[in-house]
Write a structure and sequence with these properties.
The chain contains six helices and five strands, in the order αββααβαβααβ. By secondary structure, the chain is an alpha/beta fold. Strands 2-1-3-4-5 form a five-stranded mixed β-sheet, with helices on both faces. α4 links the parallel β3 and β4. α4 packs parallel to α6.
Length: about 160
Amino acid sequence: MQRPEFDDIFMELAVNLAKRSHCIKRHVGAVLTKETRIISIGYNGPPAGTHNCDDEWPEQGCPRDSKGGCSLAIHAEQNALLYAVKNKASVEGATLYVTLAPCLACARIIYTMGVKKVIYLNSYAEYKGIESDEGVDFLNKFGVEAYKYQGTLENVTHMI
């Protein structure tokens, strides 16, 4: 048996975590690591103790805010970072694996928190129909290594 690379393990976990999302529009998962250890996980959805979008608004999802975004959801990478900090884990120098490239707002948070690397599976720009992955561009401009995952996802648990 060939031992999987850690990048493959962590991205596969992010893909599986995305399946926990209650979002109607998009399921996103994130894994925050240091070296070969997981320090936090997250997926997109509402803050704990509020409404789950698929329960409260099963047809259309949560109401849109003034800019057209989800009015309730916290992004997967935000959830992973918030949980780590809430539990007093240092995220300085961490690597973030995420199934969707960070939006610009998340990129600013990732940079500010001191994450050193972001590996993403799918393009946010393609998903949103915009010209470029602004979050990735921002991160790379300011010294955070951010790039598309190049491995293979052979062990993802598929939903039945």
